[in-house]
Amino acid sequence: MGETTQAPPPSTAEAGPSTGTAAEGSKKQPVVIICIGMAGSGKTTFMQRLNSHLHSRNTPPYILNLDPAVSHMPYSANIDIRDTVDYKEVMKQYNLGPNGGILTALNLFTTKFDQVLGYVEKRAEDVEYILVDTPGQIEIFTWSASGAIITDAIASSLPTVVAYVVDTPRTTAPATFMSNMLYACSILYKTRLPFIIVFNKTDIQPHDFAIDWMKDFEAYQAALNDSGRNEHGESSYMNSLMSSMCLVLEEFYNNLRAVGVSAMTGEGMRGFFEAVEEARQEYERDYKPELDRLASERAAKTEADKKAQLERLMKDMNVSDQSAGGSSRRRGGGGGGDNPFGPYPMNEREDRYYDEEGADDIDEEEQDAIRRQEEEEEEAAHAEELGALDVDEPEIGGMPRSGPNGSRGEAWPRPV
Question: At a CB cut-off of 8 Å and minimum separation 6, what does 225 contact?
Fold first, then answer.
């Protein structure tokens, strides 16, 4: 999968002051940080800052790049989608535009993502953090089937956190802020993973105003009123809508982690990793048990389906065996030729010998006794009929007249 060669993590002897931390981190699974953000939010620069910060702590991360259209990356990725899929060739071959080419390239890469997970799991014991960079066109990853497959596959194997990078200077307007919060809310409820909002570029614009708007509805309402009045000084329809949405998202804000960082200066990195550790605990407490429960339910359902299929198969086999055994023992079924009426009794008298599935109800000795009794009763009844008519039964060739199967019936025609 085009795994880039990278220097292995330093040994514990070379780790210096961070030896204890690295030893503790090696005992637990690494945390996967999936970085998602709008185009121009500084997501790639933020990834580079995470990479350099972790290297400074002697805990180099394992990096996956899922953006096939990026021309230059300031960091070296261990697994790069560009080594597997040629984005421009995909556009040319399938006659696609830029967004269609990125989506198709990501879909093609997803078909081999089980191999990617294999590489990641092999290095899981050697790293503390795994960083995943996503395409700049955010909707391609968050709303596509391939993005959902990749996210679910990673989250089912390792503790996973979603970091949503926000361009802080562009969020100073209440309408833009609300748009970013709605998008963050949609991603949170789509992935259901621990979520961190990262207000980037705090070296240009501090993020304090955003935290105030999230915690205090009245502060956001005041900013909205100042920016959204029409020429008559009246609140517009959009202001009323955003005011209502802010109230709706209040519960969302209360359960959300938000930090401010500067990808250029490195400010706020400590607070970000503290939020990552809290998100990791949330994953272990809430997401993982739910994942295990769903997996056990799927396994139980699969086992129940297999058992039901096996029972149906065994039942069908038993019925077939009984039908075959019963038909082979029927009267007229052998010696005298096959029964032209199938596996069922040829007359009501035989119905007492067999059950509905053609199996014998009684043994052969009882059947013979019943047959002899019936023959005697039949002969006695026939003798009574002849006595009532006062005629003698004519004989042909010394044998009494009888039907073709030895049963009493119409007399044979007299020989001329």
Answer: 235, 239
Please give the DSSP secondary-structure letter assigned to residue 216.
Answer: -
| Distance in angstroms (rounded) separating the CA atoms of residues 186 and 192 | 10
Domain of 66, CATH number, reads 3.40.50.300
pLDDT digits (tens, 9 = 90+) for 352-376: 444 445 455 556 777 778 788 888 8
Q: What are the tokens at 130? A: 């795994």
| Average pLDDT along the chain | 79
Reported as a single tens digit per residue, the pLDDT across 243-285 is 888 888 888 888 889 999 999 999 999 999 999 999 999 999 9
Total of domains in the chain? 1
Among 154, 179, 153, CA closest to 164: 179
- Residue 260 to residues 200, 207, 241, 279, 354: CA-CA distances in angstroms? 6, 6, 27, 16, 85
By residue range, what is the domain housing residue 213? 31-282
As a whole number of angstroms, the distance between CA 416 and CA 413 comes to: 9
User: Which pair of structure tokens corresponds to residue 12?
Assistant: 């514990």
Task: Give CA–CA dist 56/266, Å, rounded.
Answer: 12
CB 221 within 8 A of CB 184: no
Please check whether residue 395 lies inside any domain of the structure: no
Instruction: Decide if 72 contacts 89 (C-beta within 8 A).
Output: no
DSSP 347-412: SGGGGGTB-TTS-BSS-HHHHHHHHHHHHHHHHHHHHHHHHHHT-PPPEETTEE---TTSS--SPP
Please indicate, yes or no, if residue 180 is contained in any of the structural domains: yes
For 65-123, the pLDDT digits (tens) are: 999 999 889 999 999 999 999 999 999 999 999 999 999 999 999 999 999 999 999 99
- DSSP state, 331? T
Rounded-to-integer distance, Cα 372 and Cα 409, Å: 19
pTM of the predicted model as reported, rounded to 2 decimal places: 0.67
Cα–Cα dist 170/176, whole Å: 7
**262: its two tokens:** 């500067």
The full 3-state SS of 100-168, as one line of letters, equals HHHHHHHHHHHCCHHHHHHHHHHCCCCCCEEEEECCCCHHHHHCCHHHHHHHHHHHHHCCEEEEEEEEH
